[in-house]
Amino acid sequence: MIGRSHRCSLRLTESSVSREHASLRWTGGAWMVKDLGSRYGTFVNGQPLQPGIPVTVQPGVRLTFGREKGVWEVTDAAPPEVMVVPAEGGAALLRHGGLIAIPSPDHPTAVVFQGGDGSWVLEHAGRVEVVREQAPFVVESVPWRLCNTAPPEQTWMAGDGREAMALNEVQLRFRISRNEEHVDLSVGWRDRLVELGVRSHHYLLLTLARVRRENEKSGESAATAGWIDQEALFKLLHFGPERLNLDIFRARRQFGAAGFTPGAGIVERRPATKEIRIGVGETTVEVA
């Protein structure tokens, strides 16, 4: 939706633009623009549209709305992507490795991702909540909206067309140096072994795996084993919440990019608490 109304994704302030002026819609094979009966018209390459009649647009097409001086050019006709956009205007944030980091992947204060049940989840300040299409949510005083959510992706295909590897079918294999400064991680799935190498965030996964293994040895069930309060985890890791959130984000992004689904499930959080656990129960640890 394009216009002056708060319901529009593209909000224009020019008085000649109607409250709900035009729409731009993906049909499954192309983008179509349609004038919604605006007073001063919608123009494609300078030609007025007949109200209510959609017209296909391609890269290079120029759009104007009412008497607005600004000209909008279509630069990409690819299908829509899931994104988070600032409700008051600004650049959209897209998914990478199954995650949308807010405000950026370098400083992921909050993360939005699709859960195993198909719902979209916001993690912020150690809390988890469900977010819905176009419903505003706030991260550090800035309102955002989730856009273009689609049905859950087929679990047997990764986003780039590769066969996806279900996270509940994998085994994590840690190889650590004697001083535990280096943690090499590989992931077994069926007859395949995926090498993830040495990364600093693998120490977080190793620590969480140890907590889960100890709980299971003590007789806890798979459903309850491994949960640890964030404050207790800080004492084991010897660092604070900013580093923890960054390591969780990097681990999830790495697993998502490697083709594991859902990649965000490698680290789980309990709603309404600050408890965390590793999302894989099958682990082995070897000292190199």
Strand order of the largest sheet: 6-5-8-9
Unreliable segments (pLDDT under 50, ≥5 consecutive)? 152-160
Radius of gyration over C-alpha positions, nearest whole angstrom: 23 Å
What is the structural class? Answer: mainly beta
The averaged pLDDT comes out at 90
Distance between the termini: 58 Å
Strand content: 35-45%
Written as H for each helix and E for each strand, in order along the chain, the element string is: EEEEEEEEEEEEEEEEEEEEEHEHHEEEE
Shape: elongated
Secondary structure tally: strands: 26
Tally of DSSP helical segments: 3
Question: How would you characterize the overall build of this protein?
Answer:
- The protein is mainly beta and 288 residues long.
- The chain contains 3 helices and 26 strands.
- The protein has helices at residues 202-217, 230-237, 241-257, and strands at residues 2-3, 10-11, 22-26, 31-35, 42-44, 47-48, 55-57, 62-65, 72-73, 83-86, 93-94, 99-104, 107-114, 120-124, 127-131, 137-139, 142-147, 165-166, 170-176, 183-189, 192-198, 228-229, 260-261, 267-269, 275-278, 283-287.
- The strands form 8 sheets. A 4-stranded antiparallel beta sheet has the order 6-5-8-9, with no helix packed on it. It has a 4-stranded antiparallel beta sheet with strand order 11-10-17-16, with no helix packed on it.
- The radius of gyration is 23 Å and the shape is elongated.
- Mean pLDDT is 90; it is low at 152-160.
